[in-house]
Design a protein that fits this description.
By secondary structure, the chain is an all-alpha fold. The chain contains four helices and no strands.
Length: 71
Amino acid sequence: SDDERMVLNATSSWKSSYAGVSNYRFHEARRAWGITADRWDAAKASLIDRKLLNRAGAITTAGRNAIGSDY
């Protein structure tokens, strides 16, 4: 889905926390694309189930390979 693509792109592009802001990836994605917390959490859970993110929310090799492909 588009939300899953946003989460993968944000996870591969930004640090998880930065300048004292925890969940920096979500904050930047919300600013850039307007994604809500509920949509972010749902997409992240789906990506974890599909093993494109690990349980800690870090991108996996499969997730990196999926960016730009039609997964």
